[in-house]
Amino acid sequence: MNKGVAITGMGIISAIGNSVEENYVSLLNSKTGITAIENISTIHANEIKVGEIKKTNQELLSELNLSSDNNFSRTAMLGTIAAKQAVLNAGITSINEYKTGLISATSVGGMDMTERYYHDYFNYPEKIKYIGSHDLGDTTNSIADELGLQGMVTTISTACSSAANAIMLGARLIKSGKLDRAIVGGTDALAKFTINGFKTLMILSDSDNMPFDNNRKGLNLGEAAAYLVLESDEVVKKDNKKVLARVSGYGNANDAFHQTASSENGDGAFLAMEKAFQVATLKPEQIDYINVHGTATPNNDLSEGRAVVRVFGEKNIPDFSSTKPFTGHTLAAAAAIEAVYSVLAIQNNVIFPNLNFKTPMEEFHLIPQTTLKYKNVNHVLSNSFGFGGNCSTLIFSKAE
After folding, report:
1. 3-state secondary structure (DSSP) of residue 181
2. Residue 158: CB partners within 8 Å, gap ≥ 6?
């Protein structure tokens, strides 16, 4: 097996908790964060449910102690909170001591600021700065500034596989010697634009999402941020770091099928998983748990299910579950959220349940793990698939 790149820190804020510890407790107790919308004024408030972080923008501002004239979007604030947690968890006191990069993923960026101020853009010049936060890169730069990072800073936006690709890029840069340390992950906040867009696509559920259930209606949108600290073995040895787990495999491929739908046979998903196995030098039978993308849309679950069957064989599929019934689908942040959950599964030898499942899909007999299960977990495969055919797979492995 490929030894992989060390994970030495994690940070997260989601609908089920404001820290890694709070998220873990919620996962153990099947405490979902799917609720009615409270922070956004929308005509769809009574029609859909979301995974909303129950903190107002003002509360986030106070927590970060930002100046009153800041132009941080909600996405940037959530990302800063999670990234700071990860750096603290990794025991980093001098962030520029080594060649360090920040690779952050987002889809929404500062859309919430744009929605609030675009009507005043031309009449009130002092509000132009808020429109400037719309740019995805502005979100990443804001996080980097708050961390005091002077090294490489870049943004990835490949729809719902964005954070997976951020983690993959960070691991590759460390393995190639370009970086000694990478802070990788993603952040996305809820916005009217996102709600309206997914509503138009008719893939939102009016009830709790039900991944891999035959009667699934669609997804619940969510907001969250999560980051991992990746470090080279040289840094780990020099600083005597505790390794939480390792990024041992990764792969991405494109379905090249449709702008918003995955191919019926899951071609991109299949290729991404195959590539991840090649990088990790692992075989499918060595995977103990699959954290599936599992959005609970008719298209995704059918496509991903068929890809999983192609890779593992229908009779040899390991325990699998989608954790999106806990958090909702957090778009560009999803893979980072699920990376944290994958590491928690490895650290605590536990499989988290796929909530709300009742009826197997008629196309195949795939039954997710529906209750908390304790077992030895050495390797976790995590899938993340996005619009435009962007398919990515990560493999996390127990530290030696």
Report:
1. strand
2. 105, 165, 386, 388, 390, 392
